[in-house]
User: What shape does this take?
Amino acid sequence: MSSQNTKVKYASSYKEQITARGLIIGSVGAIILTMSSMFVALKLSSLPWPIMFVALVSMFALKACGTTNINEINVTHTAMSAGAMVAGGLAFTLPGIWMLNPDAEIKPLTLIIITLGGVILGLIFTSLIRKYFVVTKELPYPMGQAAAEALIIGDAGGKKAVMLFASMGVGAIFTVLRDSLGKIPATFMNSKMVSYGSYGGIWLSPMLISVGYIIGPLFIGIWFVGAIIGDFGILIGGQYFGIWDAATASSVKASLGIGLMVGTGIGIIIKGILPKAKEIFGAMFKKDSIGDSIVHLRWAPIVMMVIAFLFTILANMGIVASIITILGIWLATAMSAQCVGQSGINPMEIFGIIVLIAAKAVSSIGQTEAFLVAAAVAVACGLVGDVMNDFKAGYILNTDPKAQWIAEAVGSIIGAFVSVAVLLIIVNAYGPHVFGTEIFPAAQASAVAAMVGGISHMPAFIIGLVLAVILYCVNFPVMTLGLGVYLPFYLSATAFIGGMLRLFADKVFPEFEKKGTGSIIASGLLGGEAVVGVILALIVAIRILV
Assistant: This one.
């Protein structure tokens, strides 16, 4: 996909990319999206990627204000989307505190410190690893690609714009029929697989099929192999042949998947980051750049020490756990960047679980403090997933990464305060006992609560970890393998359909993809479901507030 479309207006200077009106529009959008994201994450135990929605809203809002350019739109939607994933990081972890102890009391200041700490660390590490994952590794980042495609084609107009918005309409209508009107089932489940504890089947999702199409058959094929290992091998095969019971099979599957993802993170650091440590982390000690623009990060080591102090004293985490949390966020943000880049999925609560287990293993932190560790990590990883998608779109659109980074900082800091406020309002209005009920199921937080005690099957975890380090170092896409093992089968199967459609198109209709037709349709379908998902999220939030 080329960004050099003559019909598209690009900014000629930095000042045309990051503007006061853009930051105001982005900030207002960040407040609204953060509020809705908190409600939806708790209510529906899911959180749609906001990037497509905010890209279109930013485009229409700025065009309504007068003359604009595609880079100003890109920077504005970068600010607008940031708070959504910050809210997700909190919603997917912290409610577990009250699930285990409804009488637990947490000071608002503590929540602010944890959330802001996660945001600031996420911003620091993302700015440092942006070039490695987006430019050097050239990971696909399907959500970022789709957003860039939508902006380029939508701004230029013509037949491709008609195709994009037509497919977007199809995706939107399908999503309304499925999620709002209930006319289309969400999943088709295989009853025999379900009887073995597997979520066997497919999810009827244009978005996930499109993600599979954009990513392509290689990564998706490895992802699906992981799903076969996890469900047909461990869950079904293990029980069928009497190797273990259902509970053991489930713990082996989860622990192996987590081990593969942790091992991938270690592999990224060993092979990708440490050899380039001077280049990547030099910005923390001197004037250096992220991408093409200068960003001063000489303040970063001091800020990290301040965060460690605040975690230690005000969050009562202790110095060891605080240091482990900061080091863990370094590892987890690299894992998140790789995971989102290869699959479009960001299991932020899993990264939080990994670091909280490490913190508990080497320190004597309490139950509540363990959740705070997980929350800081999940917030950072949620933000990283959003930032890296935005950076991918910006790379395609030739947007100055410094302008995007500043916009992301503005939106994420706003999101930190808004998400904490909304969470506290919910706790005060409904009572802490509301989490884990039909009102606010908060399924991810429940999973974190279940893992506070530690990895359920340590041998499987260690096997996965060692295997992943080795496979990553020989350039095998092991992160997607781990995702396939860990995630429900129906998600992997649906993404696999998209990957196979891409393979079919490339082999049978090569001109179809050379012209970009398939990617345009996939981007539209993805955008249609993503936009409607955010709109439905806003409706749910408004109904709860009213």
Remarks:
- The radius of gyration is 22 Å.
- DSSP finds 24 helices and four strands in the chain.
- The first helix runs from residue 14 to 17.
